[in-house]
Amino acid sequence: YVLKRYSNGEIAKGTFSGAFNELVDHLQAKLEQLDHEKEYPVLHTDKGASLLVAFVDGLVLQYYLGVYDVEQLKDMTPYVKQVILHALKTEAEG
Fold first, then answer.
1. Dihedral, CA atoms, 20, 81, 31, 24, nearest 10 degrees?
2. Contacts 24+ apart (CB under 8 A), 22-26
3. Which pTM was predicted?
4. How far is CA 84 from CA 43, 52, 57, in A?
5. What angle do CA 47, 90, 73 make, to 5 degrees?
6. Closest C-alpha among 30, 26, 27, 5 to residue 15
7. Do 29 and 20 contact (CB within 8 A), yes or no?
8. I want to staple 62 with a disulfide (CB 3.0 to 4.6 A). Which of 16, 21, 24, 67 is the partner?
9. For residues 85 and 83, what is the distance between their CA atoms, to the nearest angstrom?
């Protein structure tokens, strides 16, 4: 609904992107706090939370588009968890 309103110009780009960036920044700080051992390097980059949100948002969109139903997502959860955790362990390029 929000994306539809954004696409129709009912929500200003600055408002939408500003709110999203604020959400991601807050999430970034929380994720960094949770990973004291720095076991997941991606979480400590400036794009860590954004990448995680993109992955999860993609699954949410696929659910709403009918690609997956709730049961399929539940069945996929262990695999998706492993994929995400593996991805988060990727070292940043130097």
1. -10
2. 23/53, 24/49, 24/50, 24/53, 25/49
3. 0.75
4. 11, 8, 13
5. 80
6. 5
7. no
8. 67
9. 6
